[in-house]
Write a structure and sequence with these properties.
mainly alpha; 15 helices; MFS transporter; transport; transmembrane transporter activity; MFS_trans_sf; transmembrane
Length: 382
């Protein structure tokens, strides 16, 4: 599982350093931030439609087939984006990838299938550390390949997705036995909004989903705009952007792989999640100061603090949601969780592009307020 997550994140982050430069070939310079945000938002919108469907299908047919289909779709989407030639081709590539974006929710359901409630927090932390390693390797490799050709990272990402597919085929047995699978599918399971509302009928999931939504919204604002900010403010090239994102991966390994499991054991997942949100919001607030003081140490401090909070929150929140979900609906609930995060990832890039036009600090300041408000809500509930 950890190796699969590593490949998943490495493949996804391969393309990040070159994304604004790829878009800049087809649009005027003032429009780059808007089009980068729009492409990310379209991907998230397609994920919103697809994630609940793929989650329900994993409950009915097993986790493994969904992971295989999703990874093949990612490979195709990356390859189409790499071919390029026109802006609409870039959009098509991201739409294909978004409509098959079910590998992460299937992997999370896989963890819930194979781990008891007390083991899920550390297991999600281990997967997060593996993702952090992928996040470290992917941007460095993507930045290096981007120096050769803007298309090279896309083809590299497609190759990584296919390699991950081979790994799942040969090394990951099915975790969801026939006896626990859904007896039948119904049309309500293919309705993203209906499935999300069904998950929210579980009282224990409502606040958790709300704070995860706020976290995803704040994080997406940064992810959608950071490469543009670095390009505009500090004149970073793909290689330099790749090194910044590699630093994110290093901090993810530290926080998710080492800090989170130890803190969860001592303080419990809910308190660690609340602390992670507060730290994450502080990091966003520091990044908001960067346009006022464009210095690399301030950038490094903000990104490090943001990522450390991210690493504490994500495995803790994943464990809380998995433990609150009924066993026979793990795939559906994980899919609904990915769907509501997709709503945040659709709104986040668009809000980020608009706010960036108002002031370069605005996206990060607003995101910090949203995330800190979620931290307060979760702390009060604790």
């Amino acid at each position: 599982m950890a190796v699969s997550v590593f490949f998943n994140f490495a493949g996804f982050t391969l393309i990040i350093p070159v994304l604004p430069f790829s878009v800049a070939r087809y649009v005027a310079a003032p429009d780059v931030a808007w089009w980068v945000s729009l492409i990310l938002a379209l991907y998230a919108l397609c994920s919103f439609v697809a994630a609940p469907v793929l989650g329900a299908l994993s409950d009915r047919f097993g986790r493994r087939p969904v992971m295989l289909v999703s990874l093949c779709g990612s490979a195709l989407g990356f390859a189409v984006f790499g071919v390029g030639g026109a802006l609409w081709v870039l959009v098509l590539g991201r739409v294909i990838e978004g409509l098959t974006a079910g590998s992460i929710s299937a992997l999370y359901a896989y963890v819930a299938d194979t781990r008891g409630p007390a083991e899920r927090g550390p297991a999600f932390g281990m997967l997060g550390a593996a993702g952090g390693l992928g996040f470290m390797v992917g941007p460095i490799l993507g930045g290096a390949l981007g120096q050769v050709s803007l298309a090279a990272p896309l083809y590299g990402a497609a190759a990584v997705a296919l390699l991950n597919c081979v790994l799942v085929w040969f090394c990951m047995p099915e975790s969801h036995p026939h006896a626990r699978r859904s007896v039948r599918l119904h049309w309500g399971q293919f309705n993203a909004v209906g499935q999300l509302l069904r998950a929210l009928r579980e009282t224990r999931l409502r606040l958790l989903f709300a704070v995860v939504f706020c976290f995803a919204l704040g994080g997406t604002v940064l992810q959608a705009n950071l490469t543009v900010l670095l390009k505009d403010l500090l004149a970073f090239q793909p290689g330099s952007i790749g090194l910044v994102l590699a630093g994110v991966g290093v901090m993810d390994i530290v926080s998710q792989g080492f800090a989170a499991p130890r803190l969860q054991t001592r303080f419990g997942e809910r308190r660690v999640a609340a602390a992670g949100l507060a730290i994450n919001g502080l990091g966003l607030a520091i990044v908001a100061l960067l346009p006022l003081h464009a210095i690399v140490p301030l950038l490094a401090a903000g990104i490090a603090i943001f990522t450390f909070g991210d690493g504490l929150f994500q495995p803790s929140a994943s464990a809380l949601i998995a433990n609150a979900a009924p066993a026979e609906r793990q795939g559906e609930v994980q899919g609904a969780n990915q769907a509501q995060q997709a709503i945040a990832r659709t709104a986040g890039p668009l809000a980020s592009a608009w706010l960036y036009g108002v002031a370069a600090s605005a996206p990060y300041a607003v995101a910090a307020i949203v995330v800190l408000a979620a931290a307060v809500a979760l702390t009060r509930e604790s």
